[in-house]
Amino acid sequence: MNKQVSENLTVSSFYLWFVLHGTQTGIAMLNFPGKIILGAERDAWMSILITGLSIHLVVWMIFFVLNHAEQGDIISLHRQLFGKWLGNLLTLGFYGYTLLFISTEIRSYVEVLHVWVFQWSPPWELTCIILLTSIYFVTGGFRVITGICLWCVIIPSLMLITLYFPMKYAHWNNFLPILTHNIADYTESAHRAVPLFLGIEFLLLYYPYIKNNKKAQKWAHVAAAHTTMLYMVFACVVFAYFNIVELKHTIWPTLILSKIIRFPFFERFDYLYVFNWFLIILPRICIALWGGTQMLRKTARLKARPALWLTGILLFIIIVQLKGPLTIDRLDALLASSGTILLYGYIPLLAIWVSIIRLFKRGSLSAGNDSD
């Protein structure tokens, strides 16, 4: 069974590190410290570590199920396991999740731009600019998107140097006493940390575009570890700068840190911080948009460009209807619940189902009949 597309469309397995890490970091980095403290409080950094370790298990399960898919992606696996009609219906459900994923990312970033920089610009204009930019990159194909992921991981990483400024005012006794909470508190914070790692599920779609994909799993684990360490660093710096009470009343604590940075030649460094975040969310949007296009193309039998533009139009219609901070909070909560179910519910069930079929079919999956 061919689990890889033609070689001229694939990328080296090494780039899986940047593609996967790029899709796991996004707008949630701006406000996650204020959310994960609602449980383990100052010990919430442990919950990030726990969630990060669990992601490695999810990575293993994704590779396990995809190695038994005829064409190496979730679309073909759905048809193998559940037949044409039910399989396509499940794929369209994943497409709906993709729309939710992109809508949350863009609308949350537009809210930051609207509050921080462009107070007089209507959100629909900013949404249109972001969507058109993303569509332009997606039309170049997966290899172009991989290049975007590479640079959008490397360039924003230079901003880590700016953490030196808030660390000068850090109060490391904010972490004391250490490990004083119960299991329920750590579990609650770990649950709130799950949205930070969303994006890994799109590996279910672009797996066939990775060269030697069966041997690429190590780079996926490197990406997951990279993401975990990045969130750990940001969380520790934020916890050292803010106390618990301040964090509970701060909307974007990571962004607030940029306001203390001052240079004689550059007064509003926080503006650069806000605009730099577009490079951070761009890989997530492009990969998800590309994945949504693939699902629509293979289930609805549309050509790539019409499927891409149809997805873009649907996203624009959805996003412009989302108004107000409360609506955005509900959207974040819906994505968090959906992502948790997908990562820790649906993917493990697929792995169990594939294992059962292997057991009774002696290692081979029963292919779904397209005439079902």
TrEMBL record:
Q: Which residues cross the membrane?
A: 12-32, 44-66, 86-104, 124-142, 149-169, 189-207, 219-242, 271-292, 304-322, 334-356
Keywords of this entry: Germination, Membrane, Transmembrane, Transmembrane helix, Transport
Q: Where in the cell is it found?
A: Membrane
By its UniProt entry, which Pfam families does this protein fall under?
Answer: Spore_permease (PF03845)
Which superkingdom, per the lineage?
Bacteria
The main location class comes to membrane
Q: Which residues form the signal peptide?
A: none
Q: Which residues form a coiled coil?
A: none
Membrane topology of the entry: Multi-pass membrane protein
* InterPro entries for this protein: Spore_GerAB
Similarity comment: family membership: Belongs to the amino acid-polyamine-organocation (APC) superfamily. Spore germination protein (SGP) (TC 2.A.3.9) family.
- Name of the protein: GerAB/ArcD/ProY family transporter
The species this protein belongs to is Paenibacillus artemisiicola
